[in-house]
């Protein structure tokens, strides 16, 4: 749904996205969600809160987002959050190391399953 | 496989793990892998290389590892990498924000799928 | 595999699919499975039984199918079961709410993992 | 975090959960999230909105939640949403059919992958 | 559901399982499915057909089953199919190599995602 | 990254890949990894070790790789490992049976989750 065709409720979200992110176009993701305004509004408000700078900096958050998206095979999310992470300062070297960690985590997660490794006593809650 | 029962090949890996991580016990994960020494050696060498400080700092790497393990529902990995991330400096506040990002990424990954969002032209390669 | 090129065994399945669903074309899914007739037959018989009206109505079943396909990132399945669910009566509003539930379930599934929440006594079996 | 030890901010969420759901105990899930109050509040507000009756009835929503949790292997979520779905009216017969659909969807999602089935022209957007 | 409490329909499936597999006890999996007899019967008939010796031998099939279960983090399935694969001839060395392949496949699947690798022309259909 | 543009470090890996696999072109996967040479080298060395003939033959290993890739919905990996498995001797019949096992494993993995089946005493470690 394009800006010009959107209801005031949807436009308000689009405006807040553009203002918060200092951008002047709306990604296809938000345009798609706009077909169900409550989901658009709720998702944007949650994402805005979660991705705001806090105890973790924006670059770390974007790299974590990318790591999850890569693990879940979400092509769109990988494309958009790769761009966002690079914009936030991720270099080619950092991306290479990030993929190294993501790859090894996915590998060892399965080795743990296959070998049925019991949780060490000192890691229990 | 306990240290005292291990072959010289396995002991060499155990020794390197303890020296590299400055610890004096071997986690159940490595003891389980020791039943197939080539997998033990290869996995350790890869993990050692991937988790070494580089363009990304060790805390960021541990949090990414945790994010992947949470996405994959690997109970053992969540337990051990939560401990490792906390040892590397992750506070309760940072953990809360990390989970916020992991949760939202898992949510939006599926919204993208369900709404069949096409990749924006500017994110294409 | 097109109808005209199919063996009698495959044609019998195609005929049953078209008669059961009151349609006159065979989806690419079945044409692909036809390269291994036992898988074609078995999959169709199972699907026919599982998707038949019963204690759950066909629309509910199609929405559950879609929810699983979205969670698994199966593009083909999302496309075909979105169409099937709409044909069975899913409105845009229902789809929006469905995606809301699917998204939140994927989010909270991971929060549960990350926070390592123990099962409440009263939910145990 | 138990009610008596909770801050006013956390107590307000606990109170709203108990009032909305007409229950008098707080699940372990919310007690765990309470260690990061913003995540507790945001998750509850989203879940409350998403699970409220709307175009889909509460039972359908609970069954969809369960279907996703089963697909993701979230033990806690399966336990709690099985209970919630039964409370909302899910019979043993309905559960059996639900699992039938979830199982077949997970099976056919992979057959589609393996056979690399192209999306039918009429299902494209 | 135990044999002595089962309906004739359920007993017939139990009998066929024990006869086909030359065993004299029923696994918890089948006892659980027995609460919905159509799912019990359908699942057993499909599994019996799929796991029968054919172009692939039983050991290969059990190892593939185990590889999928490890990838999906299904604890019960890993336990039961590890046992079945060992009974069919899987040695410790074979298990070690199997896990090596499963681990690397899970790793490279994600590297492919992260690096957004386009399918080589000669692998296209 | 094409051979002619590659550094000596990257060329050495490309040369080893072509010599080991007796091929004369480099897949897009390796060309993509070449943007981070340590990941290229490490991934190739691990893959070379894991896929070498051992207690399991190369065809079995390729089919397991394919089974995991199908379960993970990795389109590129399915395309390249289907080709590799066929080259190693997988017939259409074997592929059909392989997909049958992969499909059923994905189905029963979820039935186990949904029915919350406890591990049988004799499968415990």
TrEMBL record, chains A, B, C, D, E, F:
A family per Pfam: CMD
Protein name per Swiss-Prot or TrEMBL: Alkylhydroperoxidase
MF term (GO), any: peroxiredoxin activity
InterPro entries for this protein: AhpD-like, AhpD_core, CMD-like
Keywords (A to Z) from UniProt: Oxidoreductase, Peroxidase
Domain called Carboxymuconolactone decarboxylase-like: residue spans: 39-117
């Amino acid at each position: 749904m394009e800006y010009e065709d959107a209801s005031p409720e949807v436009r308000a979200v689009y405006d807040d996205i553009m203002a918060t992110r200092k951008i002047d176009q709306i990604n296809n993701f938000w345009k798609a969600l706009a077909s169900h305004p409550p989901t658009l509004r709720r998702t944007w408000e949650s994402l805005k809160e979660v991705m705001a700078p806090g105890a973790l900096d924006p670059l770390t958050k974007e790299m974590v987002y990318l790591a999850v998206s890569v693990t879940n095979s979400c092509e769109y999310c990988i494309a958009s959050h790769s761009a966002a992470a690079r914009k936030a300062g991720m270099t080619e070297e950092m991306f290479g190391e990030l993929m190294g960690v993501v790859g090894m985590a996915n590998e060892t997660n399965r080795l743990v399953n296959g070998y049925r490794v019991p949780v060490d006593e000192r890691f229990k809650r």
